[in-house]
Write a structure and sequence with these properties.
- This protein has one domain: Aminopeptidase (3-Layer(aba) Sandwich), CATH 3.40.630.20.
- It is globular and about 40 Å long.
- A six-stranded mixed β-sheet has the order 2-1-3-8-4-7, sandwiched between helices. It has a two-stranded antiparallel ribbon with strand order 5-6.
- It is built from five helices and eight strands.
- It has 187 residues and is α/β, with parallel strands linked by helices.
- α2 runs parallel beside α4.
- Helices cover 34% and strands 21% of the residues.
- β1, α1 and β2 form a beta-alpha-beta unit.
């Protein structure tokens, strides 16, 4: 199974983005990885180019949700950009459709319930979110889902709540689940 792993660079007051630190860790050294800019359009364009050139079976994306108190796995992405905060380039998008040719939302086919149950058994607390926001994370998740590889988007809390070590434990558990559950179901 070919996997593309993505994270994001710094933005707003987040000089250190946990998703960037995680994706750049040695855990993903043997995978195709990329750090996306927190920039409307640029992140989407970069992801589309990577999907086109790599042709992954799975896009595993990590992003920062600094207002959340724990790890959340996203179930759906909304076909809209609508955030009060500007991106890293100072651009703000309000009520803007990502792709008018697509439905209002897209849902992942990744087995989320099974993942959450497996990780909870391992003592890793996480929950399923039905709202990826309307910022760049949502744009990237929507884009990934629209391109049809299996897609999983994980929102990490800020380092004030978690740590890189905690995030690596989470990512190892996700990769183990993918290896033992998702890859087996593809055979």
């Amino acid at each position: 199974m070919k996997i593309l792993v993505t994270g994001f660079g710094p933005f707003l007051d987040n000089d250190i983005n946990p998703s960037k630190k995680l994706v750049e860790s040695s855990l993903f050294a043997s995978f195709d990885t990329m750090i996306l800019p927190v920039s409307y359009g640029k992140a989407r364009e970069s992801l589309l180019l990577a999907i086109d050139s790599i042709n992954p079976d799975l896009v595993l994306s990590f992003g920062l949700a600094s207002s959340r108190k724990g790890i959340t796995i996203e179930k759906k992405a909304i076909n809209m950009l609508d955030a009060k905060c500007p991106d890293a380039d100072g651009v703000t998008k309000r009520k803007e459709i990502i792709d008018p040719s697509l439905p209002p939302s897209l849902v992942t086919e990744f087995p989320l319930e099974e993942l959450v149950n497996a990780l909870k058994k391992d003592g890793i607390p996480l929950s399923i979110s039905l709202d990826a926001g309307r910022y760049i994370c949502n744009e990237v998740f929507f884009t990934s889902l629209a391109q049809k590889p299996l897609s999983l988007f994980v929102h990490l809390p800020a380092f004030s709540i978690s740590s890189l070590d905690d995030d690596i434990i989470l990512a190892k558990a996700i990769m183990s689940f993918i290896k033992h559950e998702v890859c087996l179901s593809k055979k």
